Structure to design on (180 residues):
């Protein structure tokens, strides 16, 4: 009896991927907030997840990429100026006090992509954030960070690979925001 191997799956998500200057500003904010007490998320992993697909087949990956390529949205500005802490998953994060309409529109369009590709949408409300550190029992006292200005001009489909050193991310495809 011959068994066929399970179809390979990639763990995918759509994200905003910072350029070098924004990445440096985020890493600096992380160091200032955390000091040496807590290990920060590696700078190369800093991003904002827009929609998490999870483990998907190659056919679903291709559907996501094709459908996302059809999204038309205008670039927008984002200011990360609010430090937050989620006690249950023990995550310290930086996000916007005010989420711009362009970001809501992009997330809505990606939810439509999920619908078209047969994936379930996230049931929790969207909260734009960059995870700065994990395993943080409580927010640092006086958790205030210098605002980080970010001009959003593209979004990406990203693969998450978990290894012995934790997760690493690889952008598979990126799309420019043009029009709207």
């Amino acid at each position: 009896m011959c068994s066929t191997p399970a179809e390979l799956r990639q763990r995918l998500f759509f994200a905003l991927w910072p350029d070098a200057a924004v990445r440096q500003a985020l890493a600096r904010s992380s160091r200032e907030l955390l000091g040496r007490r807590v290990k920060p998320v590696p700078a190369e992993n800093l991003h904002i997840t827009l929609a998490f697909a999870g483990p998907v087949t190659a056919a679903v990956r291709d559907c996501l990429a094709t459908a996302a390529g059809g999204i038309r949205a205008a670039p927008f500005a984002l200011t990360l100026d609010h430090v937050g802490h989620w006690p249950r998953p023990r995550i310290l994060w930086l996000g916007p006090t005010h989420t711009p309409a362009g970001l809501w529109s992009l997330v809505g369009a990606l939810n439509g992509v999920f619908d078209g590709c047969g994936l379930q949408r996230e049931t929790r409300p969207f909260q734009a954030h960059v995870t700065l550190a994990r395993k943080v029992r409580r927010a640092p006292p006086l958790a205030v960070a210098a605002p980080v200005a970010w001009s959003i001009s593209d979004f990406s489909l990203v693969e998450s690979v978990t290894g012995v050193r934790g997760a690493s991310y690889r952008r598979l495809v990126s799309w420019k925001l043009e029009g709207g």
User: Anything to note?
Assistant: The two ends are 55 Å apart (CA to CA). The mean pLDDT is 91.
